[in-house]
Write a structure and sequence with these properties.
Layout (H helix, E strand, L loop, with lengths): L2 E5 L2 E3 L5 E8 L7 E7 L6 E7 L5 E2 L7 E6 L4 E6 L8 E8 L5 E3 L3 E5 L2
Parallel strand pairs: 2-11
Antiparallel strand pairs: 1-3, 3-8, 4-5, 4-9, 5-6, 7-8, 9-10, 9-11
Length: 116
């Protein structure tokens, strides 16, 4: 069964950094696209970063230059490195994996709060 388990959320001050992790089971190579989304309170879920199997990584304009998506294939884990964080980055973050049939799988979500 496909399972995505996130970790790494928490509280950080503006300008600080956090790294989110998402372990993908059974095999991260089994997916065409992996990525991160976020949902702030009262708002719709939005794309943060995508890493397609083929092609360039895609980032939301609001995080370009600050966030980086990466993968450790040996660990079946994807990461979201978040630097120079802003209060507007406060949200629940979800990892996502899409297979060749476009079936979507989601993690359970991890809360990130950016505040003084």
């Amino acid at each position: 069964q496909v399972q995505l388990v996130e970790s790494g959320g928490g509280w950080v001050q503006p300008g600080g950094s956090l790294r989110l992790s998402c372990v993908v089971s059974p095999n991260i190579l089994g997916f065409n696209v992996i990525g991160w989304y976020r949902q702030a309170l009262g708002k719709q879920r939005q794309l943060v970063a995508l890493r397609p199997r083929v092609g360039s990584r895609i980032y939301a304009d609001s995080v370009k230059g600050r966030f980086t998506i990466s993968v450790d294939i040996a660990k079946n884990t994807m990461y979201l490195q978040m630097n120079n964080m802003e209060p507007e980055d406060t949200a629940t973050y979800y990892c996502n994996a899409e297979d060749i049939s476009r079936r979507q799988s989601w993690g359970q979500g991890t809360q990130v709060t950016v505040a003084s």
